[in-house]
Amino acid sequence: MPTPSSPQLVVAFDLDMTLIATVPGFIATLEVLALELGVELPAAALSSRLGPPLHQLLADHLEEAAVAPAVDRFRALYPDLAVAPVPVLPGAVEALAAVRRHGGRVLVVTGKFTPNARLHLDHLGLEVDHLEGKVWGVGKAEPLQAHGAAVLVGDHVHDVEGALAAGVTSVSVLTGGSTREELVAAGTHVVLDDLRDFPAWLDEHVLDVRLAALEERLRELGSVVVAFSGGADSALLLAAAVRVLGPEHVVAATGYSDSLPSVERDPARAFAESLGVRLRTPRTHEMEREGYRANDGQRCYFCKAELIETLLPLAAEHGIAHVATGTNADDAVAGFRPGIRAAAERGAVTPLLDAGLTKEQVRAASRRWGLPTWDKPAAACLSSRVAYGLEVTPRRLARVERAEAALRAVLADKGLESRDLRVRDLGERASVEVDRDLLAGPLAPGAAAEAAVLRAVREAGFGDAVLDPRGFRSGSLNEALVRE
Fold first, then answer.
1. Are 244 and 219 in contact (CB under 8 A)?
2. Which of 7, 113, 390, 447 is 20 to 30 A (C-alpha) from 121?
């Protein structure tokens, strides 16, 4: 059964006085136009209410028959007079970057003549995915809907009208001619002082939208067994499932095996109990799978296959409809994830991924909900420490676990802490990875603490041990696969 995918974020921006400070160029062009026409045009007053189409601004100052030719002449003068002096508004570059950071697309909808709008974007290096010119007020609704925009950012009450007509979120900035009171009266959803406030707003907005999508997805599923490792992803999924479905429709399942560090077990149990959810700890037997023990690039496939095949009967036993994993949106694009494929082939669902939640958003949501796992470091299984090509055995895993426990003890004794650490089993030699800032200080070559750390790892059962000068890197053993 295919899973739903989170739609790509599309954010639309008005141009004049939202992204760019058009006034200097507008005044310069209007003054030359007035001289050519031999008329008085109040450039300062007209520039104070930029936004409406030019023919509307000129209608009160020219004969009706003269308006259209004046607009054409203004557009012809504009490239030479108005592009160079117009700067980008504060926060505009960062606002566009914020959309990109969320994997989104940028649409510009403006009443400006399209070729001149393009000149501004190109001159200022503002990269957008689509530009729609000569649209104003409710006329912006059509391109917003056509491009699937979810947000329109503008400075004018007529931008609010366009957003509301399209049924999208209206975000208003106070850099144009409309006041806060006018914008609120027009029905805008959000008012920001300027675009410098936009990235923080967007982060919260996208998180809200994706958490709502997660809630909807969980309601569709009805009941779930959560493959619960105790990490940040599966913890958020478990908490969300309990919130949405109630604990009677949720089971937490932690597979116990030699590859699960014992230090992870009690915290996982305590977390599940704090939610009032049933916790099951079935024994998994991945070590009996030849493909797992062989430890080539597909090891995670056999591990996840064993886990899901163990949890499916457990789900049936408890009358639960689905087995869910904590796969997030970043995992799906990470490139090397055979475990994800194994779970999908066996029908496991991925609510976090379906909602588009990234690792950063998982942590942000966990913090918002007060979950103790919000800043928990990644804790991959012990087998991930064994170099590919070396057989995975209980003895190897126990040795790695002893070495990491000894490493933590030595660091604590020295008053040091490494948020992330790994002891990689390279055979009879161990490669020790710790936070990089320790390597330039307390664990620098020749330091007393360095010698103590390496001695502790050797005493755990390794013939030799070295500190990796590159520091901790999640999945560093995969680098050898990439080179191959």
1. yes
2. 7
Residue 284 covered by a domain? yes
Residue 1 lies in a domain: no
The residue among 211, 178, 478, 473 whose CA lies nearest residue 354 is: 211
Burial class, 114, CB count within 10 angstroms (exposed 0-12 / middle 13-18 / buried 19+): middle
CB-side neighbour CA atoms (13 Å) of 167: 5
Q: Is residue 119 part of a domain?
A: yes
Sheet holding 464-467, edge to edge: 422-425, 429-433, 464-467
pTM of the model: 0.84
Q: Are strands 429-433 and 422-425 parallel, antiparallel or unpaired?
A: antiparallel
Segment 390-440, tens digit of pLDDT: 999 999 999 999 999 999 999 999 999 888 899 999 999 999 999 999 998
Q: How many structural domains compose the chain?
A: 4
CATH number of domain containing 252: 3.40.50.620
- Please report, as a single letter, which amino acid is at residue 448: A
122 and 156, same domain (yes or no): yes
Q: Which domain holds residue 334?
A: 222-376
Segment 454-474, tens digit of pLDDT? 999 999 999 999 999 999 987
Which helix (H) or strand (E) segment holds residue 170: the answer is: strand 169-173
